[in-house]
What we know:
Belongs to the cation transport ATPase (P-type) (TC 3.A.3) family. Type IIA subfamily. Its main location: membrane. The structure is a single chain. With 920 residues, the chain is an alpha+beta fold. It has 31 helices and 28 strands. Strands 10, 11, 12, 13, 16, 17, 18, 19, 20, 21 and 22 form an eleven-stranded mixed beta sheet that branches. Strands 8-28-27-26-9-23-25-24 form an eight-stranded mixed beta sheet, with helices on both faces.
Amino acid sequence: MQDLKDWHSQHSEAVLKQFEADPERGLSPQQVDRQQAQFGPNAITKHDGDGPLKRFALQFHQPLVYILLSAVVVTLALQEWVDSIVIFAVVLLNAIIGFVQESKALNAINALSGSIKSTATVIRDGVKSTIPAQQLVPGDIVLLQAGDKVTADMRLVKVRDLQVDESALTGESVPVEKNLEVLAKEALLGDRQNMAFSSTLVVYGTGVGVVTETGDNTEIGKISELIATTPTLDTPLTKRIKQFSHVLLYAIVGLAAITLLIGYLHGQPLLDSFMAAVALAVGAIPEGLPAAVTIMLAIGVSRMAKRKAVIRNLPAVETLGSTTIICSDKTGTLTKNEMTVEQIYSGGQLYAVSGNGYDPEGEIQAQMPQSELQSATVDPSTQPGLYATLRAGALCNDAQLMAPDTQNAQWRISGDPTEAALLVSAHKANMASGSLNAKRVDCIPFQSEYQYMATLDDVDDARIIHMKGSIESILPKCQFMLNEQGACVALDQDTIEQQVERLAAKGLRVLAFASKATSQDQTTLSHDDVAGELVFLGLQAMIDPPRPEAIEAVAACHRAGIRVKMITGDHALTATSIAKQLGIIQPQSAGKTVTGYQLGDLSEHEFSDIASNNDVFARVSPENKLQLVKSLQAEGHVVAMTGDGVNDAPALRRADIGVAMALNGTEVARDASDMMLTDDNFATVRAAVEEGRGVFDNLKKFIVWTLPTNGGEGLVILLAVLLGVSLPLLPVHILWVNMTTAILLGLMLAFEPREKGIMERPPYDPDAPIIDRILMWRILLVSSLLCITAFGLYELELMWGATEAQARTVAVAMFVVGEAFYLFNCRSLDRSVFSVGMFSNRWLWIGIALMMALQLLFTYQPLMNDWFQSAPISLEAWLRVIACGWLISLIVGVEKHLRGRNKTSQATSDTNTNRVSESV
C-alpha cells in the first residue's frame, strides 16, 4: 500500500487500481465486507474525558486538603466531635463548590454541541444509493455535489467546476478549485487540489472521488489523535497555587511538630499538645482559599460571559491576565470571513469602496492615480466604465444576497462568497440586480479549465455578453477597453497588468470583467462566442477584510505588552496585507511573513528564533501551529491560541488558553478549547484579557487579605505554647473565622471594579510568585498586628475577670473586626482606599454587615455558644476590639503611603538621571 500521505501524487487510475474499484460500478458487496473487516467503521475514535466521580475525587487532590483530612482523623481519635465535623464540612464544601462549577462549564459546552448524522452518496455494485457516512470504506466511489459534506478523504477521479470550502481544515479563506492533476509528494495539505478531505464542504460544482482513508486515518482523524496525545499544561494560577501549597505544607507540618515538641517540653498533657498542634495547623491553612478562588473565578466567568466569552475551565480566567502572546487564526477571527470588494479599476480610474462584509452600506470614491488620496463620493451612473464594471459583476453572477429578517439580524448570502461580494459592490452603487432591467438568456458556468464565467443578457433592449474571470483568461480575449468617458479605445494591456500587480501585492483577489454586444437573434452562448473582440470593462479587487474592532483590539494588546501573532493557512500575500492593516506587522519591524514550507526543515534553535522574531505565519499545517505554540512556551511565554477549524484544535489544546469560535467554529475546536467567543471576534479576546487581569488582581488582593488571618492565628497559637498558657483560639474558632470571613468579607473583593490603566501595564510574569517581597512584608506586618491585638485583648479580658470563653470570644471578634478594617486597605494594593472610592463596591458593605450580624449570633446566641464554646461579651470589649481594628487599618495605610512616596521619588530620580544622560 502506498504511503498514506501520497495519494495526491498518484494518477487517479492508479489509485482505483490499488483498491480494485470500478468508477462506474463501485465496489462489490464482497469487497465492501472485506474492507469493513480490515478498516472498521468510518468513525474517529472518541477520547472521553474524566467521569463525574473522578472529577469529584480530584477536588480532594490538594496538599492543603490532605492536612485538613489528617486533622479530621486526629480530632476523631481525640473524640473532639464538633471539631471533626466542622473541619470535614469545610473540606466537603470546597470539593462541592469546585465540582459544581466545573460541571456547569461542561454542561454549557455540551449544550452548544450538536450531534449531526452525516450521509454519503455512493455507487456500489452499479447502484447509486445514500448510506450513513460510518459505512464508507476505502475504495468506495462517492458522488459529490454542492451542499455535500465530504465524509472521508478521497482522491478525485472526476470534477466539474468543483469547489470545496476547506477553511475548517486548512484555514484557506476562499473555496478551493479542484482538479485531477498529479501533484508533487511535498505538496502541503492546502495545496492538494486533487483531493477532497473529510469535514470539508462542497460549495460549487460536482465531482466523483474514490475513498482513500477513513476514520482515524483521515486528515481530520490524524488531527484528532494529535489532540488526544497533546498534554494540557497547568495554568499560571494552578502552578502558583501548587508552589504556594507545597511551601505552606512544609511550613505547617514543621510548625505543628515544633508546637507538639514545645508542649511536651513544657510538660503539658499529650491531649493538649495535640490540640495545640491541630489548632496551629488548622489556623495556618487558608481553608477558605480554595472555595473563594473557585467562586471568584466563577464570578469572572459570569462577567466574561456578558462580554461574549464563555469559559470552559475556571483557571483559564486568570490565565488570560498572564498572557504574553496571542496566536490568532485570521479567517473569521481577525477578519469578518466575508469577501468584500475594496477597490475597482475602470476607465483608467481607481476607485475605493467603503464598507465591510455583506452589508451593502458603503460608498464608492474616486482616488488620485498615484497618491490614492480619496476624493468625493462618485455617482456610478455618471462614470460609464465604473457602471459597466459593476453591472457585469451583478449580472454575471449566480449568488444571492438576502436582507435581514425576523430570524436573522445580519445580511446573508447564498452561493459563492466571491460572487456575493460583487453583488454587494453593485448594491452600494444602487444597482441591485433586480433593478437593472436585465434578463439572462444563456450562461457558460465557471469551469476550472477556462477560469471564467459568461452570461448572455437582455439589458435595456440590447443583448450583451458579460464575462468575469481571472486576468489571464479575460485579457487575451479583449481588443478594446473603455476610457473615462465610456468610449471604446485600443486596449492598453501593460497599464492593466501593472494595476493588477499593484492590487495583488496588497493581498487582494483580482477579477477582470469584459463585455460584447451581440445580435438580438442569438439565444445560446458558447466558448467560441467569447473567444475574442471583447471590450475590457475593468477590475474588481476584494479581500476578506479585517474587523474594524480587531484593529483597535490589536493596538490595545500591544499597549498592554502582549504580542499578537497571526497563524493562518491562507496565502502569504493575503496574510501579510491583513497583518499590516491590523497593525500586527509594524512599519519599523524587521519581521516577515513565514510560510509552512520555510518551517519544514529548521533545527529546533532556528525554529525558536523564527517563532520569536516573526509575527505572521502563512500556509501552515496543524503540526506547524502546534510546534509554534510549543516553541513559544519553551521561551517562557504564556500563550493564548485562537481558532475555529479542525486544523487549529491541537494547538488550542496545547496552548495555555485555547480560544475557539462558538458561532462558526467546528465542534472539534470547541472541545479542545478553554474558552469560546460567542461572537467569533478577536476584540472579545482583548476584552477577556482585560477581565482576566481584573480577576487576577482581585485574586491577589484576596490572598494578600486572607493570609494575615492564618499568619496571625498561627502566631497566636505558637505564642501561647511558648508561654505555656491556654490557647486563645480553639480549632473550631479558627475554622469559624477562616470560613465566614473568607465568604462574607474576602469574597466581596471579587466584585471590586477593575483599576484604571489595567491594560496599560505589561503582563504578569508567569514565573513570578503571587506575593512579592513588598506584599510579603505587609502580610507579616498585619499578621503580627493581629497576633498582638488578639493575644493582648485575650490576656486583658482574663486579667479583668472575664471567663476563658469570654476572653476567647473577644480574640475571635478581634480577628473578624481586624480583617474587616484591613479589607478596605486591600481594595488597592498600592493606593489609598479613598482613591478608589469608599462606596464604589457596595457588595463590600453588604458583606461587612452580614459578617457583623453573624458574629453577633456567634457571641450572643445560646445555641452558637454551645457549638463553638463562645460567650457574650461587654460593650466595652467591643469598643476595644473596634479601636484595635481601626489602628491596624491606619498603620497599613501609612505603610502604603510611605512606600508610594518612595516609589514616586525613585521614579522622579530615574527620570532626571535619564534626562541628564540624554543631554550629555
